[in-house]
Amino acid sequence: MTRLTQTASFENEISSIIGAFFRTFGIRAILKRTGVHKTKGVPAVMLFQELFSLVFHHKTLFRHLASSVSGDTGKDTFYRFVNSSIANWMRFTTLLAAKAVNDVIEPLIDEKRVNVFIVDDTPYERTARRR
Q1: What sign does the dihedral 36-83-51-44 (CA atoms) show?
Q2: What does each C-alpha distance from 99 to 21, 26, 107 come to in angstroms?
Q3: Which of 57, 59, 93, 124 would bridge 63 by S-S if both were Cys, CB 3.0 to 4.6 A apart?
Q4: What is the pLDDT of residues 3-21, one digit of tens each?
Q5: What is the tens place of the pLDDT at every residue in 78-92?
Q6: What is the DSSP code string of 60-122?
Q7: Which of 72, 95, 81 lies closest to 49 in space, CA to CA?
Q8: Do 77 and 41 touch, CB atoms closer than 8 A?
């Protein structure tokens, strides 16, 4: 019985931390700015939060949908949401990264330092040279 209580407590703690992250970084506003929306049914931010939390719950989408936690949300809803042609996911990640850098990292850096932001979009892994 203690194991179930600990698991439920851990799940609630993860959910509250993820909720705080979403509020702190304004995920709802960033989703709206990047064209991520739904016309009916479950709100886009709720779907995104569910998908986002899967990593921290150590679950796949398949396992999540098989459990009773997902409720009325079906597989097709998630797939249509992620594969939407209107959503600009690259812009979403860029805006989220900019918010994180400007709100969290930049205040920690001394004003005398020169700020540099390097983005490496190399699609392949570089191997170290052998001597």
Answers
A1: positive
A2: 12, 9, 12
A3: 59
A4: 555 566 777 888 899 999 9
A5: 888 888 888 899 999
A6: -HHHHHHSGGGTT--HHHHHHHHT-SS--HHHHHHHHHHHHIIIIIGGGS-TTSPP-------
A7: 81
A8: yes
- Contact yes or no for 37/44 (Cβ under 8 A): yes
> What is the identity of the amino acid at 50?
E
Q: Go through 47-56 and write b for each residue having 16 or more CB atoms within 10 A of its CB, e for each that does not.
A: bbbbeebeee
**Contact by Cβ (8 Å): 25, 99:** yes
3-state secondary structure of 37: coil
Token digits for 33?
A: 């700015």
Amino acid at 11: E
d(CA 48, CA 50): 5
Residues 6+ apart with CB under 8 A from 67: 59
State pTM to two decimals. Answer: 0.71
Compute the distance between CA of residue 40 and CA of residue 28 in angstroms, rounded to an integer: 16
Q: Tell me how far apart the terminal alpha carbons of the chain are, to the nearest angstrom.
A: 58
